[in-house]
């Protein structure tokens, strides 16, 4: 097995100063970096340079001279460094739903079994994509969805592919990736891990866990910006034979030879599809300059300190809020969720008071903790605001009840 | 049938001043806007505002407050105005290869016939995607590829789907979209038109031609920037029943209800897949401000004037170059191609002299004509440069022979 991607020898373990690397609006405590990370201060300059110096001056030559064509693999390795991938086995592009489709189609092509096992805590789009693929294939596959706590027992000999999101987008409940992957392999199944709420949130070791495929997005914890490209990892043992269902030209072995028939590119390169989104890549390049230096173990410790204090503070002051996240830190990602019957209105009231989290139906108030720009003082201030919202029953105010489109 | 998308009452018919709307590097005559359009001067400001005022200040709220979520449909209608689409039947996102996949999968789901007919002038990625889908379906489909001039005769009762690119990326040869669509319909086949080299190049009337599906990209003639999103059109008669093979959450009827099972959105909305690329959308928004005002018939007349003069001038001065494009303007898109046995080196020499076109294997030198920023003076200057390159046999210079990655 290839060695892990090189990370700095002295990675950053202290996040006291990293807040200054981000633009955070006045008066806002942003506990929604798990949905859309904030703007790194360096990003506008990087994007402006891409526009003016690269696109503007190099025109078509930018594909080679500015390295645009190589970015999906180069940036892929940098993201891969955060999830424990071997070098050369991650590529970027498209959206997470597309990457789920690619991984699942490739996994199904490797097994004769017909059952895809997932859980009800998976992000709906992953389930929708699986449903759509089952229908398109029309070859007797089925999607079996169980409760998250029942996944282990449901890994039977019928299961061809286990398709899970490691960290539940609503509750933050975290699956044990190593254990479930080992169980799946023991039962003869292939594992696909969606790391949307893991990459940049917790230490991940796809190679160590022997994950078969992994996918994720870069606009949440990784601060790549709205619509930032998704990533896909294919384990080295599968990469040379994985079947690309979306066989676009940039996954061809020689895209610019314009051959009449498709020949898959080497390894992960075949999971490229079409033209890379160069503006989005430039923004991600800027944010990865920060992430390249982060020690994920230190970040995880900081995240746990913040979430533990948040849970303690909210439970001490808000009797109406019920913890929806696992109480045990080791079983949680980097978010904390509480239930409230009027959760939507209560969250709107919190946002109006400057504490930005979000709401997930039917009753989940979700708060993300991102130590690069959220510190202990923010957590104390957020607890105070939320406690006041709850004590004053601000959710009863009609202005917070009216539902706009939920974000 | 819905009425066509509203276009300005007095669209722009004179392009003498539009060159000033673009950044063009000093000393360059850019005849490659058919591959990657140049940077509109207004784009960097629009993107900077999106970054700072929208992402930076609104954070997650930008999805609604800045209208990010609505952009694929809003911008889709603006692109739709250039291709004769009915309002509400075009959406933007992903890459062209993905959109080809969606259109082809939806078309195949509407017919029991197993043959996909295409031609050898189609862009390879369209053929690769079809090949991949045939393999994934594993239901006895086949891709039949004929020469472009044989397409009409090959539309038999076996053909379920006719998948064509209107304008050949190498030669600029243009299919008669109305005729071939009518022939396909008479034979009981469904038509998918790839408009990559049509949108913003020539007047297109997808509604008038009764095209079933159309797809295309926005980074060529439409100046959306490298990696700009692709578009897909589904005819109103198909939109309510088209089967979305890539059933991602943003194509769901209620994406933010996070329902456990997929329900396709209304009409074209189901062809959305994942999170829109908001930076790319901002850049496209800026370039569409220009395109919203363009009279496509006037643009076409200007393009024909430029290509006619270019052919005349090159043929008069460069005996070694053989016209690869149709001589008849009505059968050409907005590009002119010549063949030369040393086409790669000859094009490198032209580029070194400031005339930027591109090369397509095995021997095609390709020049795009884009009247918004190329005028008669540019064409005369380009003819002079190319004539000198050919007269001086500059392609024999070893510095131009070495192949880098082709763009």
Folded structure, characterized:
Two copies of one chain form a homodimer. The first copy, chain A, has helices at 43-58, 62-65, 71-80, 96-108, 124-137, 151-154, 177-186, 206-209, 278-291, 296-317, 343-352, 376-391, 398-401, and strands at residues 29-30, 90-93, 115-119, 142-146, 159-165, 190-194, 213-217, 230-234, 322-323, 335-339, 355-356, 358-360, 364-368. The first copy, chain A, has 407 residues and is of the alpha/beta class. Chain A has two domains: 43-291, Type I PLP-dependent aspartate aminotransferase-like (Major domain) (Aspartate Aminotransferase, domain 2, 3-Layer(aba) Sandwich); 296-401, Aspartate Aminotransferase, domain 1, CATH 3.90.1150.10. In chain A, strands 2-8-7-6-5-3-4 form a seven-stranded mixed β-sheet, with helices on both faces. Chain A has a four-stranded antiparallel β-sheet with strand order 9-10-13-12, with helices on one face. In chain A, helix 10 (296-317) runs parallel beside helix 12 (376-391). Chain A starts with 28 loop residues before the first strand and ends in a 6-residue tail after the last helix. The relative contact order of chain A is 0.16. The mean pLDDT of chain A is 96. Chains A and B meet through helix 1, helix 2, helix 4, helix 5 and helix 9 of A and helix 1, helix 2, helix 4, helix 5 and helix 9 of B.
